[in-house]
Amino acid sequence: MNTKLIKIFCIIFLLYFQPTSIIMVKAQTDVISKLKHALLKNDEKLMQSYITAGIKIPTFLKEKHLHDIIEIPSPKEDTIILIAYFKDTSDVCTIGFILEIVTKNNIISHINQIYDGTNPFMKEATIVKEYEMKFKQHILTPTKFPFEIQQFHGYIYNDNLELRYYNENISGILKITVSPVHNKLDQYVHKRTKFYNLKNNMKALYNPHFDLAYEGYISKRRFSI
Asked: CA-CA distance, 110 to 16, in Å (whole number)?
């Protein structure tokens, strides 16, 4: 008798709760699919129609169009992770951004931008950290620039770290090379070269009349920039 009652209870439980769960999951899937469509179209007005009023949408680059968006399940309740990809001119896909999306009552109630690949300084931080770990040295990077930074490319080759900052609108390029000291600053002296003594026993050399661009060197301990 007890076994029959348990079976009846289980059947009633499944009949009562399962359709609700399916509907809730489907509703979440629908609103996420709609948001993905709006993101791929880069339609901010359409995105906002699926989001709770007052929730700020992360700013994306208008000139960059998304190539694909994939969904990753999250251990958090009512949450999904979206990973968006850009495709560059060389047909290589890179991560544009990663969003954590929370849904409630068939609408998006919260958006958390976990990663922003459109921010050039995210790439800078990654490559600098890799170089720091390799040489066990803290590397200082610029905090002010002569122009707005639109793109960044960084490379590690042999013992050198090269940082390149770009502004396509004015054809601006700032190139910084970090490397172990091989030559004294005197080796880079040109006509009208200026020397500076900086904080923490750092020395700097500046060539305002270098043929190709403005040129400067900073030397501290075992490394030069």
From this structure: 29
